Amino acid sequence: MQLNTLPAHVRPREKLLHSGPEALTDAELLAIFLRTGTRGMNAIELAQSLLTQNHTLDNLFNASLSEFSALKGLGTAKYVQLQAVLELSKRYLKERCHRETLFDSPQAVSDYLTIQLRGLSHEVFMALYVDNQNRLIKDEILFTGTINAASVYPREVVKAALKHNAAALIFAHNHPSGVAEPSQADKLITKKLQNALALVDINVLDHLIVAGNQCISFAHRGLI
């Protein structure tokens, strides 16, 4: 069935305009992005088929160009559009982190870090440098690879924090395994960094672990 033959109130665009984007399903939102279907499938049916094939939006959004283009109804043009949308989302969330007081807006931090770190196939350790009003000065990936107590160097973190004149830091790293629970090594690293930064009067506000769409906060868990 073509979308234009459906009642207006169930067409994705009209439904979004009437009820807002949060009222739409994943398939309906994806259908708006796709705009058109393929032979035998309208845009909503194509969107649902893509979600079924990929299991999650995360898998679809993190597909390589070759993987994306192999899916029926998609190609290079749609891949470029999607990557542009994802990058705009990252930049929008980063703007929010610069503008808002991070310690008072933990959801903004969580949203930003989740979209930055989810889907990566390797571990990265990231620092968010914060001013004395808890606003973001800069974010930076400090270390890449398997994160353990030996691979994160407190001296380098302290040097970077002083370079950016940070009053406090928020740390984050990802777990490609999909398990967000902090390991004993994660706890040890956090304590080492807290102790090192305390010597130069720089606070550690939080350490977040991103695994898929999950984001675990050390501060929320009482570990900081």
UniProtKB/TrEMBL annotation:
InterPro entries: MPN (IPR037518), RadC_JAB (IPR025657), RuvA_2-like (IPR010994), UPF0758 (IPR001405), UPF0758_CS (IPR020891), UPF0758_N (IPR046778). GO terms for molecular function: metal ion binding; metallopeptidase activity. Keywords: Hydrolase, Metal-binding, Metalloprotease, Protease, Zinc. GO terms for biological process: proteolysis. It comes from the Bacteria. Pfam families: RadC, UPF0758_N. Residues 102-224 form the MPN domain. Belongs to the UPF0758 family. This is MPN domain-containing protein.
